[in-house]
Design brief:
heterodimer, A: 586 residues, alpha/beta, 21-stranded mixed beta sheet, two-stranded parallel ribbon, 21 helices, B: four-stranded mixed beta sheet
């Protein structure tokens, strides 16, 4: 800054905004751009006007119109709504996260918008119609874990978005009102590059699909739904051998040599195939049809595949270049040891439970052994989600020692509060070893028997931890206090069924403003404590969520009434006005 | 378990009820006063697994862990373990499809252990995978009679696979022969016999008539 009588201001101060905008375009991370914007008014102006990509991780953190005003040049926006635990049914369905205000604000202020992504939000057909009619160069629509719309809304998109490149529908709840959304793509339309309708339950017109696939020569991603039989999948592949990512439809059929030959030939033509997924009730006899693509696969998602046995293992073992493997625990320890020796480039492993509620008498043999083997032999492994029935501290310590490069470690023991099954001790030592060894750990989910001791370690060592999920853990408020007073980088904390009360929250209220959100359910919170927290921290929204049907006004409840569900998040917008009756903002 | 009860109803022979522990030479010598009642197999298997004496601590821990798993848990726990609804419904759909398919549940007992293990033969592919599965379950080598006699020096405590036919006689399993019995109503193998130095005894009880290949025509139970 120029001072009176001092040296003149440096020449870069008078550079035009366009130069700064160009400079900022090299900053890859939004956080860096945000930091630059804080430096001075000039940089703030240049940065906000040149921001092309905006991510809003909590749709209630700001008013949509403010976001659009602040960043007028956005071409790609991603907005996320409900908290993560909504995935497991812990949020009442009417809670909120409506996409409509965002679509309306975008339609007003971002006419050149090209990409829109919504995750865990309520998206209506009207929203989709507005998207289809408001943005003349709209190219990418991604809806993940959303609900509220039907195939009629999809029809508006396919008809209205002439430049659509990507329609990605992942795990949404879509009402099928039998509209021919697929047929609405005009005959002259050829720009489709990615189509994912795996979550749709209804039939699609296969002839229409086949014609669409034939004329869209740039199609790289195709994820089909369960209604498309294997025979048709093979036909589609012959029309689109350039495909990179495939989600098969219903991959099950009685073995027939002709069909096998057809499938095998179809896959043989797909030399660019790198990512494979699908809902496979796969008959093992068909797995060899995939052998020709195994070598090229980098991602394999068998998380819906109930296939098991030697064929599964043989198949996976041929995928020597896998970076990402999602599989059911039907692979068992033996299968994982084969993965460990075959897939040396593995970076991410997710193992899902085939019998999560114990109805089938526990025939699966997936234990801690499988994870120990993979962590020992896969040097690049950095992300794990592992459902299993038992664990030991020793195994966790070994895993921590083998793989200090974990960035994401999520362990879900099927039985809550399971101790070390050999020593019967809590798993404190094991998880402490993980956080002490894995200095780059960004995400951690813990389960099993855990005392306050483990939280001491986490608070002290997990400096890079951004997201922590706890269930049935801890003994007292000390545990929560250690987390909130440590964990410098913590952004999201989600807790269920832990004996944590108001004290730790109130003592660390300021910390909550440095975080994106806090979720707690079935803990030991009280209405009075939440009220105090809200009073103390005006920039936080403190939501008390009851079961739908229970709408007793919070004001009338005594101080020590228990709070079943609490959701706290920082916001610039003040309390939201679209809460259902079961949600009260204190 | 549902599969067993249903298949039991369909089988003409109900061999489970024809099994009588007093007929079995090996069984009559076992000290297992708490041998489960064979008539009510579904109850057995539900409650059956618990701590038992076994050669290694890890195996008993496995049984204990299995007893946690085998009881349907979390009926009062809300939404644990944390799986997404799509996976939940896919598993439910798959489970109901499997209930429509035939299952061939058998029980394996190890002498000295009153607690048996349950196995669905139709999930296996042939005798090799059965051997592998059994070895895994009981952490002990199991083999066929012919093979055992050939490899005696190498394997000192192997368990030979034998089976019980519909007359209640214990026969040594020879894979080729056994395959021929697949059309035979009494099919099924099972078993391992006491060898001269070993002390383990496996019993594999056939509950249903036919041993079939794994790709059955789906049929409603």
């Amino acid at each position: 800054m120029g001072r009176a009588g001092g040296p003149a201001a440096p020449p870069w101060h008078s550079l035009p905004d366009e130069v700064w905008e160009h400079a900022f375009s090299f900053l890859p991370a939004d956080a860096d751009r945000g930091a630059a914007a804080c430096a001075c008014h000039g940089w703030l102006r240049a940065e906000r006007r040149s921001r092309r990509r905006l991510v809003v991780p909590n749709c209630y953190a700001t008013d949509p119109r403010d976001a659009v005003d602040r960043f007028p040049s956005v071409r790609a926006a991603e907005v996320k709504g409900k908290p993560h635990f909504a995935d497991f049914g812990l949020l009442p369905p009417s809670w909120g996260a409506y996409a409509a205000p965002w679509v309306a604000a975008a339609a007003d202020g971002w006419p050149l918008l090209e990409e829109l992504s919504f995750k865990r939000m309520f998206v209506t057909d009207e929203c989709l119609e507005m998207i289809a009619s408001s943005f003349r160069n709209f190219q990418v629509l991604r809806l993940n874990s959303c609900e509220g719309f039907t195939t009629a809304g999809l029809a508006a998109i396919t008809e209205g978005c002439r430049n659509l490149k990507e329609l990605d529908l992942q795990e949404n709840y879509i009402d099928d009102c039998s509209s021919h959304w697929l047929s609405n793509f005009p005959e002259c339309y050829t720009s489709l590059e990615a189509l994912n309708f795996s979550c749709l339950h209804g039939e699609v017109n296969f002839t229409v699909l086949e014609r669409l696939v034939s004329r869209c020569r740039n199609l790289k991603t195709l994820k089909l739904n369960n209604a498309i039989p294997l025979d048709n999948v093979a036909s589609l592949l012959r029309k689109a051998p350039q495909i990179i990512e495939l989600g098969t439809g219903k991959f099950s059929a009685d073995y027939h040599p002709d069909l096998f030959a057809k499938v095998e030939a179809a896959f043989a033509g797909c030399t660019s195939l790198r990512r494979l997924s699908g809902t496979w009730d796969a008959v093992p006899d068909y797995l060899p049809a995939f052998y020709c693509v195994c070598e090229g696969l980098t991602s394999l998602n068998l998380s819906y595949a109930t296939v098991q046995g030697p064929e599964l293992i043989k198949f996976i073992s041929r995928c020597k270049n896998l970076l990402q493997l999602w599989v059911m625990d039907l692979i068992e320890d033996h299968g994982l040891s084969v993965v460990a020796s075959s897939c040396s480039k593995l970076q991410e492993l997710r193992v899902f439970p085939s019998d999560p509620f114990g109805h089938n008498g526990g025939q699966v043999f997936l234990t801690e052994r499988g994870l120990v083997d993979v962590s020992a032999s896969c040097p690049k492994l950095e992300s794990v989600l592992y459902f299993c029935s038992r664990m030991t501290n020793e195994a966790l310590v070994m895993i921590a020692k083998n793989r200090p490069n974990f960035t994401c470690f999520r362990l879900a023991l099927l039985e809550p509060r399971s101790p070390d099954y050999i020593t019967r001790q809590p798993l404190d030592a094991g998880f402490s070893a993980i956080v002490e060894s894995c200095k780059g750990l960004r995400r951690l989910s813990m389960s099993g028997l855990l005392t306050d001791l483990v939280f001491k370690s986490i608070g002290a060592h997990a400096d890079r931890l951004e997201m922590l999920s706890l269930a049935f853990a801890g003994d007292s408020d000390l545990g929560l206090n250690d987390i909130l007073s440590g964990c410098k980088s913590l952004k999201k904390l989600e807790i269920r069924d832990c004996p944590f009360g108001d004290k730790a929250l109130l003592a660390n209220a300021a910390k909550l403003e440095t975080m994106r959100s806090l979720w707690m359910n079935s803990c030991s919170l009280t209405v009075g404590g939440c009220r105090l927290l809200a009073l103390k921290m005006p920039h936080l929204t403190v939501e008390i969520i009851n079961d739908p049907g229970e709408t007793c006004p919070v004001e009338s409840l005594p101080f020590d009434s228990p709070v079943e569900k609490l959701y706290v998040y920082r916001t610039l917008a003040g309390p939201r006005s679209d809460t259902p009756d079961c949600v009260q903002i204190v | 378990m549902l599969g067993m009860a249903e298949c039991k109803g369909r089988s003409q022979h109900s061999p489970s009820s024809s099994m009588d522990s007093s007929n079995h030479p090996a069984l009559s010598t076992t000290a297992s006063p708490c041998r489960p009642d064979r008539q009510d197999l579904s109850t057995d298997l539900r409650l059956g697994l618990s701590l038992s004496t076994s050669p290694s601590s890890s195996s008993s821990s496995l049984h204990e862990a299995e007893s946690i798993i085998s009881n349907p848990r979390n009926q009062v726990l809300f939404n644990w373990p944390p799986i997404k609804p799509f996976l939940r419904s896919a598993l439910a759909a798959s489970a109901s499809r499997h209930r429509l398919q035939r299952t061939l549940f058998v029980k394996v007992y190890m002498e000295g252990l009153p607690i048996g293990r349950k196995l669905d033969l139709l999930l296996l592919v042939g005798y090799e995978s059965l051997l592998v599965k059994l070895c895994h379950m009981f952490k002990t080598p199991i083999t066929y009679a012919a093979v055992y006699h050939q490899q005696v020096p190498a394997v000192k405590a192997a368990h030979i696979l034998t089976y019980e036919d519909q007359d209640g006689d214990w026969m040594m399993a020879i894979p080729d022969q056994c395959k021929e019995t697949k059309d035979h109503k009494s099919g099924i193998m099972l078993s391992s016999k006491l060898d001269s130095c070993g002390s383990l005894y496996f019993l594999f009880c056939s509950l249903f008539g036919r041993l079939v290949e794994k790709y059955l025509i789906e049929s409603r139970c």
